[in-house]
Amino acid sequence: MSRPRTPPGPAPSPHRSPPRTARGTAPWTAFGGDLHLDLGERRAAGAGLRAALEDALREAVQDGRLAPDTRLPSSRALGEDLGIARNTVVEAYGQLTAEGWLSSRRGSGTTVAERAAPRPAARPVEVRAGRRPTGRHDLLAGRPDLSLFPRSAWLASARRALAVAPHEAFDYGSPLGRIELRRALAGYLARVRGVRTDPDRLLICSGFGQGLGLLAAALRGRGAGRIAVEGYGLPPQRDTLRAAGLGLAPLPLDCSGARTDLLAELSGAGEGAGEGAGGRLGAVLLTPAHQFPTGAALAADRRAAAVRWARGHDGYVIEDDYDGEFRYDRQPLGAMQALDPDRVVYGGTAAKSLAPGLRLAWLALPDELVEPVAALKEAADTMSPVTDQLTFAELITSGRYDRHVRRCRLHYRRRRDLLVAALAERAPRVRVTGIAAGLHAVLELPPGSLPEAELMDRARAAGLVLTGLGWYLAGRNAAPDAAPALVVGYATPPDHAFPAALDALCEVLRTA
Ligand SMILES: Cc1ncc(COP(=O)(O)O)c(C=O)c1O
Fold first, then answer.
1. Mutate-to-test residue for ligand 1 from 322, 345, 442, highest number of ligand atoms within 8 A of CB
2. Does ligand 1 come within 6 angstroms of the Cβ of 234?
3. Gap between the Cα atoms of 420 and 171, Å rounded
4. What is the pLDDT of residues 454-505, one digit of tens each?
5. Three-class SS of residue 437?
6. What are the tens digits of pLDDT across the range 414-464?
7. Whose CA is closest to atom 1 on ligand 1?
8. What pLDDT score was predicted for residue 3?
9. Distance of CA 320 from the midpoint of ligand 1 (Å)
10. Which of 132, 212, 232, 349 to mutate for ligand 1's pocket (most ligand atoms within 8 Å of CB)?
């Protein structure tokens, strides 16, 4: 390939000129900023040198990159930077001065003319995804108190982890994630949640949301057409499942959790059972420790029924253990995965115990799913970022994570007790459920109260940010007689904001 021809003119000085990129692009260092003049494209389109320079300058003034009064480099300096003759710059400056874009005064060089109006600013781009409702009192379920993030412990662990990490830790690595974290998690999950796994079967992902998407794609790849979901659940999770091409079959809920005894029946029902695509029922997504959002723990016979169904139908149970660390009243319920690690995928996340913004979560996979899910993770993003994985591994092995979780558990339990006491005193008709664990409660109103939509309107007017139970409903027929109810994330506000949020909530409920 021949090199592009260098335009005629003085040779660039090795001292003054910034490094020139291909085809006449020069970083405009004279401004100390990042403005670039790219003549290459215009030259390639057939423009002469002078015309290309005039166009590039005109455009920079027009779109505001060169503000009025900005001093331009001398014709000599710009000629050298661009590798073109000084005279070409003099002529281009002269032309643009005549057109009114530039102004030239003897002794003070060439500047951008005062009246050269920039183009009106581009319309702002609005990104709706991820935008959260705003209000004075944030009681939206699903997040921890972010002021509790263990900054000092995290910093200490990051420092230690980075000091001892081998060089290869910063390379592309296994899609399963860093071995240090998989080892630490295998031990932690066995000890705290009774999970039966090992580092080779653990995959680190960017949030449980990503893990669920990978699982859904893997199940689809194995011929699943449908997945059973709980009658109430997180709408974005259902979106993820649908996006992977799975149809959804909602399971009714009662005080013992999801009706997993109906799975065999749903399997046989095939097309038409539930929403979306038909086909084989390949899995069920459950929140056994603390049903999200209603709060029931999945009863032992329901756990057994789900595992029995999975074994008999070549299916899988996906266990979303999103807040398993936060159990207050009873003995901690172990993970359901221990019943059958070949049929139950265990999913955990740091979203509640540390912070959702970390995007750190993990799957303990049955043997048959390790390879396909790891391949999908590699295709998605190679692997999750290593520095946070190394830090989290150190946080666990140093014992700091246990101490942090214990501290949070006490904090959230106190919050829950305050909520329950305030409601008992100020809105005694409200039934509080789902409070044995987790970071949220369901507040159910008695018959004859306001309909849920109206209740939500009043809550919004009082500056409360929360959701009605109906928002979580999986199918229109899943709960035809449900009472109006609010889902309240009592962990969300920092301490100083909690009493005011509680006051506003009680006032809305008192008059509902
Ligand atoms: C039911 C449930 N599962 C899982 C998660 C965690 O998801 P992620 O790890 O993607 O933040 C949440 C977070 O709100 C949740 O509510």
1. 322
2. yes
3. 50
4. 999 999 999 999 999 999 999 766 555 678 999 999 999 989 999 999 999 9
5. strand
6. 999 999 999 999 999 999 998 989 999 999 998 888 889 999 999 999 999
7. 292
8. 40
9. 8
10. 349
- Ligand 1 binding pocket includes 498 (Cβ within 6 Å): no
This prediction has a pTM of 0.81
Instruction: Please report which confidence band the pLDDT of residue 385 belongs to, taking 50, 70 and 90 as the band edges.
Output: very high
Identify whether the C-beta of residue 362 lies closer than 8 Å to the C-beta of residue 204: yes
* Residue 192 CB-density burial (10 A; 0-12 exposed, 13-18 middle, 19+ buried): middle
Write down how long the chain is: 512
Please write down the long-range contacts of 411-419, taking CB distance under 8 Å and 24 or more positions apart.
411/145, 411/148, 412/144, 412/145, 412/326, 412/328, 412/439, 412/490, 412/491, 413/328, 415/490, 415/491, 415/498, 416/328, 416/441, 416/490, 418/490, 418/498, 418/502, 419/488, 419/490, 419/502
- The DSSP string of 25-62 is EEE-GGGTS--EEE-HHHHHTT--HHHHHHHHHHHHHH
Question: Which atom of ligand 1 lies nearest, measured to the CA of 211?
Answer: 10
- What separation in Å is there between the alpha carbon of 209 and the centre of ligand 1? 7
- 350 C-alpha to ligand 1 centroid (Å): 9
- Ligand 1 near 142 CB (within 6 A): yes
Which candidate, 466, 463, 449, places its Cα nearest to that of 511?
449
pLDDT at 382 over 70: yes
